[in-house]
Amino acid sequence: MRENDACGGGNRTLSSEREFADLCYNMAMISSSRPSSGNGPMTAASRFALPCLLLWLAIFSVTPATADEAHDLAFFSQHVAPLLSAECLSCHGSEKKGELDLRSGSTARAGGASGQVIAPGVPEESLLFEYVASGEMPPEGKLSDEHIAIFRRWIEQGAAYPREPVDPLAYSSEKRAGYDWWSLQPIGPFNSETTSGLPARWQTGQIDRLIGDRLQKAGLEPSPQAAPQTLLRRATYDLTGLPPTPEERSRFLTACRTETGHEGVVGERAYAQLIDRLLASPRYGERWGRHWLDVVRFAESRGFERNQIVNNVWPFRDYVIRSLNEDKPFDQLGREHLAGDTLGPGDPAVEIGTAFLSCGPYDDVSNQDPVRAAQIRADVVDEIIRTTGESFLGLTVGCSRCHDHKFDPISQKDYYQFYSIFSGIKHGSRLVGPLEKRKAYAKEKELLKQKKVELVEQKNSVERKSIARGEARMEEFAQKWQRPPTSPQGNEETFAPVDARFVRLVIESKQGNPRTGNGCMLQEFEIWTTEDDPRNVALSAHGGKARGKARQARDFAGAYGPQLAIDGAYSARWIGYGNTLTIELAETSRIDRVVFATDRTGADAQRGRETSPCEYRIEISLDGETWQTVADSHDRKPVNDKHREMRFIRSESTREEEEQRGALYSQIADVDRKLDKRAPFPLWWIGNLVDPPKEQHVFLRGDPQKKGEEVQPASPQFLRGEIEPFALAAQAAESERRAALAEWIFASANPLTPRVLANRLWQHHFGVGLVATPNDFGFMGGKPSHPKLLDYLARRLQQEDWKLKPLHREIMLSQTYRQSGAADPAAIAHDADCRLLWRFPPRRLSSEEIRDTLLSLADVLQLEMGGPGFRLYDYLSDNVSTYLPLDRHDATTYRRAVYHQNVRAMEVDLMSDFDAPECAFSTPRRDNTTTPLQALSLWNHSFTLDMADHFADRLKYDTADLPAQVDRAFLLAFGRPASTTERQAAETLIRQYGLPAFCRALMNTNELIYLD
Q: At how many degrees (to 10) do helices 942-958 and 847-857 cross?
């Protein structure tokens, strides 16, 4: 741009747009300072000044900044903002430590407790630069010279800030991930690549080209192809979790020989047909369903201290298995997990999917303290948020519960937007069936309830007559009721001395419900002699024996038994399930007093009162057959109004009223039976869904008692780009919230969900995912070993409409999967963990595979699918639950291990020893431990011994020839015939110790439980 001669004496080039703007401004000011010539014609200067002024206004009013300012802002965006985000804003952002907030220009210039911290243009006079340059800040350690230079240059240039505050979650750094983190970026279109130098068979598929390219760059060679029998065993276990049968081996080798002319060479068609057959097997869903059940922390007990079993959540397990066998699109499966009740209302096959929300551990301990109750509720919702974030998105969303995530770009507000979506979920069971039928059933129940109300009112009307007659004689009764009412703290009855061998307490009413004497508690029941030095002859220490029905606790025999009422200790109690406590004395004794108490100290308060006898009689006997009443409570004052009324009903009712009451009680009982009748719909543990509170808040520091800003159900902010966000009104229905989240999670533009799922598939075929941390694609997780391959698989998953079987097929047909598992010392030295996949990584069978394999070898495996699970433990429950592993496993347990009723916080010998998780949390990858217990359980457990016996019987049934038995055993166990040396050693062992010992030895070999 050149300056006009009229404006400044000669031509010269302006150095910048800013200089030109200054010139325009100056000319405008000069023009405006000249005297006006009235309404005459404009001067030349005036004619120039107006457009200059307009241009100046345009530059500074319409454009965001001049070129220099734009350059400064670009420098801030590229260098300063990421540095502030990484090093400063965790303290001097929303935390405002030292009253300093560096997120925006206005707050930064305002300074903090120490005054102004930035002097634009003068770094040496800026407290911020002084602290940074000296290493005083950040407190974790001095910044690099390069970073210090960035701060210096920024302040020298004027410390420019953009209009919008800096988002501390926006930038990735060496300390944390931002919105630009790799896993949050869109999955771009994939361009097929060709890699020269690879064998021809590695050039046909994209998986092999991408794996081969990394191998070449690392100077590694792929391993040769595995033998047909190795591939058969590997693929069969991978897709079904069971060993191939000798007959399946024979058919596959025959197909390979027919196709290639040699049974030692894999036939392409034969192998593809094998994979298709395995994918079509119902065993596929059982095997891969277990993988997903681990991820969604499925188990069949509530966890926590009570840990009661949940007997009606097993349909979710069957639903997962069925869905995978049908190859249901996984996005549909996921949507059903989050919002099945909205996708298929009234359809049990769809609604059962929402059990995902409530099949995790659940703290069901009621708490009278509202503060503690609110915290428990927040913990319950947090568990659902964590599982959802980890299972579908591969992000630890739960870490934002108390503050913005320390490592990932997930804000606390994001967390509580999730909270507002899930806060209407209540754990528990509900009926599932067609809406109209459920309405009809509910109406029928309501009519029964109304009928019961009417019958109870009729009964009460009859009883009121008796009560009225008693009230009319109240003065007469008051004369009779002279003694104080009974007390939980202690009651004493004295009577004329009498000889007794048996003494019993007959409880006619208890304080909490005077209509019955059942369910009372007693700490102690004392029987005192008439001797000069009286003795409590009821004591078991004095030979007393107590009888009486009691509450039973299978996990602690006698925990509430009658013996506790005569042990001399006021701690444990007899809890009666009848209304009689009988004491047999060691010998006939002369007695004149009994004393008993329910709650001597009063520590039990309400429970002590409600379970205390308030109407009773004391009876004695010499032979235990003929009884004599020596004392009762009938002359005591009633403990409450209900007790008084019950006395009137018993004493003042006429025979006709007694008959009326009896008839009405029978009718009420009949209605109760109908109310208790099982509904014609399944009652499943899929949660009760209610509209949450309209007003939802951030909990400051995660404390429900400290409410911060209000939030509404909305999508989190960590995904940008093409994905469409959602935000719902505070009045949005509970179901609408979950449905919106489901659509967002499985939106085609969401890059996380397909990446996470594709990685899970790869992991279960190769032992480790392309991302080694399948539940964490954030900063603290692993980086992908093959990022292009991960995105290729994620894109293929979407192209296949989220169906898993096509992706299984592509992976298993690849040369990468078909490699030998043989070790190469040179490759191991370079890549010991085989992350580059220069061979197929050998793996140990899972606990379920090991157990199923033993059952299969023994030929006793029952392939019945679905239904309630079997148990390898004895379940004992009384307030809290106890699970006792069974020493012996009978034939009812010979099902696939996926149908075991797994519960939390317990161990089941072989299963637990081989790392079966308890699923208190999502388990994306099993531990793989080696412990002495594994060898001991596999060698000594009665289950293994039983299976060895069955295995031996099977071999005897198949053939009587010893060498043939050995070959058959090797084919069944290892998928190969025995070598000459192995056959000779086996025959020697069998002749010396028997066939079961040989079978037991095979079941304890590494070759049986490892795949290569």
A: 40
- Please name the helix (run of DSSP H) or strand (run of DSSP E) that holds residue 521, with its range, or none: strand 521-522
CB 232 within 8 Å of CB 252: yes
- How far apart CA 239 and CA 225 sit, in angstroms, is 19
Nearest to residue 810, comparing CAs of 333, 204, 144?
A: 204
Percent of the chain with pLDDT over 70: 93
pLDDT digits (tens, 9 = 90+) for 891-943: 999 999 999 999 999 888 889 999 999 899 999 999 999 999 999 999 999 99
Label residues 944-972 b or e (16+ Cβ within 10 Å = b). bbbbbebbbbbbeeeeeeeeebbbbbbbb
Among all chains, which residue has been given the structure tokens 């379940």? 875
Which has the closest alpha carbon to 296: 315, 320, 318?
320
**Dihedral sign from CA coordinates of 612, 617, 622, 623:** negative
CA separation, residue 520 to residues 489, 491, 509, 631 (Å): 14, 14, 9, 19
List, for residues 559-613, the tens digit of each pLDDT value: 899 999 999 998 889 999 999 999 999 999 999 999 999 999 999 888 889 999 9
pLDDT tens digits, one per residue of 208-263: 999 999 999 999 999 999 999 999 999 999 999 999 999 999 999 999 999 999 98
- The C-alpha atoms of residue 398 and residue 418 are separated, in whole angstroms, by 10
The DSSP call for residue 1005 is -
Q: Output b/e per residue, 368-381; b: 16+ Cβ within 10 A.
A: eeeeeeebbebbbb
Query: Rounded to the nearest 5 degrees, what angle is found at the Cα of 675, between the Cα atoms of 671 and 676?
Result: 120
Which H or E element spans position 594? strand 580-597
Distance CA 865, CA 817 (A): 30
CA 657 vs CA 586, 649, 662, 843: distances in Å: 45, 10, 8, 78
pLDDT at 631 over 90: yes
Asked if 66 contacts 157 with a C-beta cutoff of 8 angstroms, the reply is: no
Mean pLDDT of 737-758: 97
* H or E segment to which residue 790 belongs: helix 787-799
DSSP letter for each residue of 630-644: EEESTTBPPSSHHHH
Q: What is the phi/psi pair of residue 378, to 5°?
A: -65, -35
Instruction: Please say if the pLDDT value at position 786 is more than 70.
Output: yes
Beta-bridge partner residues of 242: none
Report the alpha-carbon angle 646-651-654, nearest 5: 110
Mean pLDDT, the chain, whole residue set? 90
Distances (CA, A) of 861 to 865, 895, 950, 1003: 12, 6, 11, 15
Residue type, 29: M
Give CA–CA dist 241/232, Å, rounded.
12
Burial (CB < 10 A; 0-12, 13-18, 19+), residue 11, is exposed
* Residue 2: per-residue pLDDT: 34
Closest to 143 (Cα-Cα) out of 133, 152, 153: 133
Per the CB < 8 A criterion, the answer to whether 491 and 597 are in contact is: yes
Phi, psi for residue 782 in degrees, rounded to 5: -85, 155
Please, are residues 493 and 618 in contact by the beta-carbon 8 Å criterion?
A: yes
Q: Do 609 and 512 contact (CB within 8 A), yes or no?
A: yes
CA distance 266 to 227: 7
If you compute the radius of gyration of the chain from its CA atoms, what whole number of angstroms results?
40
Q: Where are the beta strands (DSSP E) in 806-951?
A: 843-844, 873-878, 880-885
Residue 592 phi/psi, 5° resolution?
Answer: -150, 10
Q: Are 734 and 748 in contact (CB under 8 A)?
A: no
How much is the pTM?
0.84
Q: Please check whether residue 643 is in contact with residue 509, taking contact to mean a CB–CB distance below 8 angstroms.
A: yes
